[in-house]
User: Which sequence fits this backbone?
């Protein structure tokens, strides 16, 4: 019954968990790996295998196959009016990540499957909590929904054309258009150039601090964004920085979590 | 009416580029990637400092945002024009299309000889973003237009399995038409960038006027390979090879020259526009 409810909820878009374009997720993990301690790298490979870099979006794949449907809830974060994370239960990325860190820390007493699942959480839920589409702000109720908006498709003035897009989908796939043949390695190089200088800042703090960080990043968006809003080409261009920022933050923070959990 | 027609054609053309992963994305990105591999450490450091991104990141910026009202003026900065003799490049064309070289000359005048140091970072950044695209577009074989008075026979279309295909659309998306539409920049660099130092020296020598003559030759070769009415789905092995060779040369020449432009700017030098300067 629960599975049916969750499947229906998924269809209705209540828990529409968002990943990024696959290659961005892979890039985030590759860059994270570069910033892990040797011990963390060893443990990652031990539990997820030598092809660890392809171990992204596994929850998404599982859900498509009808498994782990509850993982859609794990990928969400909610922030209150003061941008403090709301962690009332374990149905959110923050609680799941905190639990996953403990599992990896205590991996000697856990089964391989449990540790592998926890490592997947560290990777995929850290990525998820940095995707604008997964962040709900109490101040802006529609931030929880997947609303439609109008995105510029080019043209000038009155002749400008707009396409109807879904907000959450846009924040997952709307920024890969202009870099469509980029490899994950190319994205890694780009992330290092455009955000490498912020590495220490991104890696510092706790999971809850990171959630508040993202709230501060996302809040100005919702000052104007909402159902039926219009997004110009220029705004799209400017938000690509925000998107990359999310990928970079997620990447360095995956490394921080692995380093912490394998100390 | 004419204006509306031009805008409509440009808009439809851009959508084609956008959808076909054409020169606009893949070839521009590859050109910028090749250039980045051949920057001096100093030039790379400075380019990254101003851009805050890699070169390929901004390779298609001008294509992406030319339809934004704020950047409307850049829409006409992508193509060049040959002189009536079909040998020389029209260096001063102010017509649309035809402005790309004029804007490259202008950008070099603003940034070269160490002048970039006196400009606000944001201005240097925008000029660099534009230049990354200019040099790519300059070398695209279909971005050189030939005067209709002396080259009326260059105004034709191709076809793809019976459907009309513009000459421009084929060459803009030539990597995709050649079955290389999914190649990453690294793949192209690994497989194709095997240029000898002697060839690089030839490409990077001379003035912009000399470069223009090379670009006019690229344009002629494109017309020799894809002739009027040619069905691109039925190209012979030799025609395909010639098409691939031209695309590769255009991307590599553009990439090495973009590297040279940036290396020159960031070593406080400049590139002469004319031989008789």
Assistant:
């Amino acid at each position: 019954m629960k599975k049916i409810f969750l499947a229906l909820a998924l269809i209705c878009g209540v828990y529409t968990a968002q990943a990024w374009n696959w290659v961005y997720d892979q890039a985030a993990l590759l860059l994270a790996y570069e910033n892990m301690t040797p011990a963390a790298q060893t443990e990652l490979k031990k539990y997820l295998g030598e092809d660890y870099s392809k171990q992204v979006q596994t929850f998404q794949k599982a859900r498509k196959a009808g498994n782990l449907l509850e993982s859609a809830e794990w990928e969400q974060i909610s922030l209150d009016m003061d941008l403090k994370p709301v962690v009332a239960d374990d149905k959110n990325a923050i609680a799941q990540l905190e639990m996953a860190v403990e599992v990896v820390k205590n991996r000697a007493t856990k089964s391989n499957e449990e540790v592998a699942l926890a490592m997947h959480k560290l990777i995929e839920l850290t990525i998820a909590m940095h995707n604008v589409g997964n962040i709900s702000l109490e101040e802006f109720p529609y931030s929880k929904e997947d609303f439609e908006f109008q995105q510029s498709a080019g043209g000038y003035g009155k002749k400008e054309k707009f396409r109807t897009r879904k907000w959450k989908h846009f924040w997952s796939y709307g920024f890969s258009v202009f870099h469509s043949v980029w490899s994950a390695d190319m994205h890694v190089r780009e992330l290092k150039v455009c955000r490498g200088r912020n590495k220490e800042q991104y890696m510092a703090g706790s999971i809850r601090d990171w959630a508040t960080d993202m709230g501060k990043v996302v809040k100005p968006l919702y000052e104007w964004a909402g159902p039926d809003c219009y997004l110009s080409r220029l705004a799209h261009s400017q938000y690509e920085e925000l998107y990359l920022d999310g990928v970079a933050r997620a990447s360095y923070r995956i490394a921080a979590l692995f380093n912490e959990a394998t100390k | 009416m004419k204006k509306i027609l031009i805008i409509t054609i440009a808009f439809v053309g851009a959508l084609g580029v956008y959808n076909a992963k054409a020169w606009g994305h893949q070839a521009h990105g590859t050109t910028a990637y090749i250039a980045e591999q051949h920057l001096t450490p100093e030039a790379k450091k400075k380019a990254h400092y101003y851009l805050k991104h890699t070169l390929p990141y901004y390779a298609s910026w001008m294509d992406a945002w030319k339809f934004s009202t704020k950047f409307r003026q850049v829409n006409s900065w992508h193509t060049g024009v040959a002189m009536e003799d079909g040998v020389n490049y029209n260096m001063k064309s102010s017509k649309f299309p035809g402005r790309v070289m004029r804007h490259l000359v202008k950008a070099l005048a603003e940034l070269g000889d160490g002048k970039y140091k006196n400009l606000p970072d944001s201005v240097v950044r925008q000029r660099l973003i534009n230049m990354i695209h200019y040099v790519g577009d300059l070398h695209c074989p279909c971005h050189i237009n030939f005067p209709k008075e002396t080259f009326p026979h260059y105004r034709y279309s191709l076809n793809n399995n019976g459907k009309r295909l513009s000459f421009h659309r084929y060459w803009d998306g030539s990597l995709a038409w050649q079955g290389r539409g999914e190649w990453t920049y690294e793949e192209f660099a690994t497989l194709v960038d095997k240029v000898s130092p002697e060839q690089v020296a030839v490409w990077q020598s001379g003035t912009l006027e000399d470069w223009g003559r090379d670009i006019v030759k690229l344009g002629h070769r494109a017309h020799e390979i894809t002739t009027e009415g040619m069905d691109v789905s039925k190209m012979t092995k030799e025609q395909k090879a010639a098409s691939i060779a031209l695309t590769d040369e255009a991307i590599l020449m553009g990439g090495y020259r973009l590297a040279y432009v940036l290396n020159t700017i960031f070593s406080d030098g400049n590139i002469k526009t004319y031989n008789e300067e």
User: Anything to note?
Assistant: Chain B has one domain: 2-265. Residues 1-22 of chain B have pLDDT under 50 and may be disordered.
